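Quarterly update from the structural biology core.
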Amino acid sequence: MLHLPIRYENHSLVRELTEVVQGTQNLVEGVVVYSEIIQKPRRSLIAQLDCGTGLLYLRYIHFYPSQQKLLAEGNRLRAYGVIRQGYFGLEMIQPKCKQIELGEPTSPTLTPIYSVAKGINSSTIARQIQRTINEYQFEDIVPKYRLDQLGLPCLAESLKLLHAPPTSETLPEIEDRNHPAWRRIKFDELLAQQLSMREQYRNRRNRTAPLLELSSVSERFKQTLPFALTSSQVNALSTISKDISKKYPMQRLLQGDVGSGKTIVAVLAALQAVESGYQVAIMSPTEILAEQHYRKIRAWLSPFGIEITWLSGSLSRQEKGVALDFISEGKSKIVIGTHALFQEQVGFQGLGLVIIDEQHKFGVQQRLALQGKGEVPHQLMMSATPIPRTLAMSYLANLDVTTIDELPPGRTPIVTKLISDTRRDQVISRVKEVCLQGGQVYWVCPLIEESAALQLQTAEDTFQRLSQDLSGIMVGLVHGRMKKAEKALAMENFITGKTSLLVATTVIEVGVDVPNASLMVIENAERMGLAQLHQLRGRVGRGESRSTCILMFQHPLSDAAKSRLRIIYENSDGFEIARQDMLLRGPGEILGAAQSGVPMLRFADIETDIDLLTAAREVAEEMLEQYPTEAQMHLQRWLGSRQDFLHV
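Predicted structure, tokenized:
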């Protein structure tokens, strides 16, 4: 019954041929006066229908014996389709035809058209659905007074109307999904989503997690920092600190724009766990980002005698063995790494806090595997891809969300420029100028090796060309397929200023922090997503120099590429970029829904249906509190076993 029509056809009004508007769908009636199969110019079934006020040709390019029989001379038919002027006169191509008796009434409702699988047609589905609706015992689970407040009809009435709307209903309102019947379906779907997530949120509070008490080390560490925390960072840290000092597990998302200072907040939370006698695991999606975290955090915490271990797939067998022993014996208090952290051979002595950076880049099983390394650890997820408010209200209702909404002082605004790759020589001159003045530059390419299909500039080719064009300037290269030692050396040389220009793939998208870098060139920017462009742009603007990001593109540009480049050019606020990105791509792409296991909404649109989403949140809390049986019935009706996906 929730397999709703994709559109409707009006088979209720028979039009005379003199009334029809060419190029539009029409229903006409007449008697077949001529029918034959012709072979040229291509095999077709042709029939002539006498409609009383004129003749109409029916033409089938694809047909079956049953249609030949239907179009036999003397049969009275109703034909539905688009009428156009053909070679011999007015014609319908591939019309829907039905044999009728003289005076037979037309359909009292609009005719639903369904999406179908191969081997079944829309009319068969329509019959099955109507039979089910007539036999099904509907029960309205949602409290009636809530439905009345929202002006929503009962469920039975809504479904019956959507599957067979009376011809008196306003078709645009139904097709645009603004009709009260549609709003009822969308509300029920949003309510199921909210019930499932809020139920999981409540259940988490019945589990027992380590009590991580606030320590003096955190305060001493803060005093050693060369900068003061922003008020937004202080508020975020206070919230997280309170969470992990409670007896039930924290599951919080810490989000903030590029460069807002999420890492230092996470480290302070980690110190609270370490001082309480527990271990901390920090997992990042790329080796470059994980190693950057390791270097930075080790430098910060080594004066306090805290053992920090680095674990990645690229370690030698001996290095990995030593690291695993340190972790399992509890000597390592903070373990930083990539996917290697949740491998079977990794064992913690007492894992109290899990920190996952760029959490949407990890799958459900991966996050569960890392959580499973401790009994019930607290979990802090971080994202530099801000989640729009409506997305957080809807898909992240099972989490607590904290936002760092201000940048640390000293972050300079970044000027964004759009430049065609036909002006590459001018861009290279600009790069040379910056390097000779003592600045540093990133040059980002989307591919490592040549692809004939995409014909994109590669990092290796660009490295060779720039090394030749910029003689006297040290140029480095880093990409994901380099050996660990080569990659580490290339990054070290750029961080310390030995190389002035770093040619890289998008492996530097997150986490890399070089304050002296004031220019970024992104090749083939039209091929990249908004979140990725915003993340890359955030690698500059970290020092006192005025920073610029050049987005170099190739013609021709698709409409989607033009939209993305316009958005990134006009906006520097990550939240606004994320909102626009969601409008372009949908929530699933932003959340990494294939990774997260979140059931996507089929009917509701969280941007246009924000009033229903807000109401669903309120009603969900009320039903879980006062009507728990009805809440479970609603969940079973809408999600069935799929609600288990949400328990991550």
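The first helix runs from residue 65 to 70.
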